[in-house]
Amino acid sequence: MAAAAAARTLLYSSHSKLFFFPFSNCRKKLHRSIINKNPIFVPLRCLQSAQQNASTTHDPVRSRSSVVDILEERGLLESITSDNLRSISTTSTLKAYCGFDPTAESLHLGNLLGIIVLSWFQRCGHKAVALIGGATARIGDPSGKSLERPELDADTLENNTQGITNVITRILHMNSSSNVNGDGDGNHLNSSSFFVVMNNYDWWKEVRLLDFLKQVGRFARVGTMMGKESVKKRLESEQGMSYTEFTYQLLQGYDFLYLYQNEGVNVQIGGSDQWGNITAGTELIRKILQPEGDVAFGLTFPLLLKSDGTKFGKSEDGAIWLSPSLLSPYKFYQYFFSVPDADVIRFLKILTFLDMEEIDELEKEMNRPGYTPNTAQRRLAEQVTLFVHGEDGLNEALKATEALRPGAETKLDWKTFEGIAEDVPSCSLASDQVLNISLIDLSVSSGLLDSKSAARRLLKQGGLYLNNGRVDSETKRIEPQDIVDGKVLLLSAGKKNKVIVRIT
């Protein structure tokens, strides 16, 4: 018993009530990905005062832009636990986190607002943490759900965790060079504004049930937990709620407590459906640590909805994924390009980082005579695609979009074909059915046109295209250089009818 007692540290006093952790865990550095030229690992500080550890860092040089005011102006602020966060955010360096449970192999459009709000914190000179719910995903968040989530096995969770970690690090790494505070040339974040990806399984795997119930559970009131909106809705449903799901809010609350004590995180952000889980964390910090004044804050943003109240982020084919392996940048771009006029200005405010002056001017332009349709949608699609997929992804999307434009003469490559493949009919033919075959014959065998006479007539009218280039000669035959990357070619009849020919 004495050896067992010596093998752990009980961190619990009237001033700082922490948790049981083995000494070995105190020496262990948490595994995370850090986007910074000089990666910073913060070791687990087992014996440091929680209140001192999580205190804000004051900037003696100047006041920074208020991230809270920016979010509010753009329609990204739903609720806040204390209005003091407004002033604190202008004079202190905050550390904000947002949680992402790995319930799928990629994040989707519904998760994008969390990344955008974290990016706003970064752009205002604060620090950001993305917390992967490797532990909480095993429980399943009941917020906004009418049914309990299916259980995921360990291999699936590991694969999903890697997938969404890649998405988050890719997006915030590409966008880590913007700062609204005008440091230096105005284009670079200061060295302290790094981005960290963590996994809550790193600490939950060490948690012992009896210790958790004694040190944390005793501060949770069942009445308060029952009063959470997510709980009430599920209890009123036919399916009800399992005890496992019921405890989710306490687990998420403890995550905030842990991050506050050990990583200096003092702001948790999330969608409006996360309000109950977020306040569970601020309440735990208040009750267990008994700090003076406001030291931990919660902030929520609205859910992404269309003007008709339906959820924005779903298409006929399913979720709008942020991973290019699941949804091409072209398809992603097209989704935003098709946003209705009624939604486009609001989405420009919440989904892009464009100046409000430019957005206001676009809104005025939409109401002027002679407005070119979809100008605002094009700006929205370009900016969101650039944020999620970077310059290469945007160029790929624009190239594929141009390739499908009526009468386009875009030079095609394999990536462009991949981008448009889902929107253009295709056929597969053997190489001997394509090479040295007349364009007239191929137009029929590919299904582009019904007859050779129709193909000849269209060619004479200047409406038959090969790889977006107009063909004038009736004797034109397919040559090796006509086949893009030795794999495909594109035939067009007129300005709209196209077919992709795949060479097998």
Shape label: elongated
The number of helical elements comes to 21
> What level of helicity do the residues show?
40-55%
Strand content: 5-15%
> Ranges with pLDDT <50 over ≥5 residues?
1-55, 182-193
Distance between the termini: 71 Å
Q: Largest sheet, order of strands side by side?
A: 3-9-8-7-10-11-5
What is the β-strand count? Answer: 18
Query: Average pLDDT across residues?
Result: 80
Keywords:
disordered N terminus; protein biosynthesis; Rossmann-like_a/b/a_fold; alpha/beta; five-stranded mixed sheet; transit peptide; 504 residues
Tell me what the structure shows.
By secondary structure, this protein is of the alpha/beta class. It is 41% helix and 13% strand. The protein is built from 21 helices and 18 strands. The chain has a 7-stranded mixed β-sheet with strand order 3-9-8-7-10-11-5, with helices on both faces. The protein has a 5-stranded mixed β-sheet with strand order 14-18-17-15-16. It has a two-stranded antiparallel ribbon with strand order 1-2. Helix 6 links the parallel strand 7 and strand 8. 40% of the residues are buried.
